Target: Dihydroorotate dehydrogenase
Amino acid sequence: MENPTMLASGILGSSGSMIRRVVEEGGAGAAVTKSLTIAPREGYSTPCLIAVKEGFINAMGLPNPGYKNFLDHELPEALKCGAPIIVSIAGSSSSEFREIAAYAEKRGAHAVELNLSCPHVAKMGLDIGADPEAVYDVVKEVKSFLKIPVYVKLGLSDKIVEAACKAEKAGADAIVAINTVKAMAIDIYSKKPILSAKYGGLSGPAVHHIAVRCIYDIYEAVSVPLIGVGGVEDWKTAVELILAGASAVQIGSAIAVKGLKIFKEVCLGLKEYLKLNGFSSVKDIVGLSHKL
Ligand code: RRO
Model:
């Protein structure tokens, strides 16, 4: 990667041309696709995304054209940007993760990210990620044959550190944390939950300090590289996740607020911060808050 910023899964990662723009115009160092499933999914009906005071709540419901469609028709375009493209996978069993990961590798993905963290789709995501033994089984299965790196994306649960340890034991090459946090918004006039799926995932500034805490705790427990996600909205929030232990950061909700310029803004601020503090590389500050 040319810089430590990445496009987070779920934002602009549904088409090859958008991914190219995020890298070529925005300057992201790498991009993660929207999570792919075996069969195409339409996702939940509207309302599926709302803006709240400190972020967004979404329940998109994993809309995607199915892995074959995406990997045949969108990935080749995305790969033209030259930056690493990481294919996000959602499944409800080890064999589903295996099937999609194998095809992603065949079609030229640089890595896969296993979505064990979506907080509001039943039997997928966090339903697996909050069960450390299930995390071990899925990661072990994918690692048993795949040559490209396997990132494991975990979400907020009481077991997140245990799950990260199990993922590492099963061979994960990196841990990504966190996803959105299960939440709800109620319309005081209709007196009903606003999202059609009732529950959704909270993202943006509201979850930043939860992400910092999770990265900090996971860094103490594992040796593989960590990628921090959650409320990165400027260079300061990126530096905070790096000091907690992240080697790179993913950016999602802030794109909806600031546009694609967020990537260059973070990189520039990070560079200045390193220079002003006498460091020569991001590596010098990864996990530094544990050492002082
Ligand atoms: O598609 C979604 O509703 C979704 C997914 Br897969 C995820 O991992 N996280 C999220 O907040 N929404």
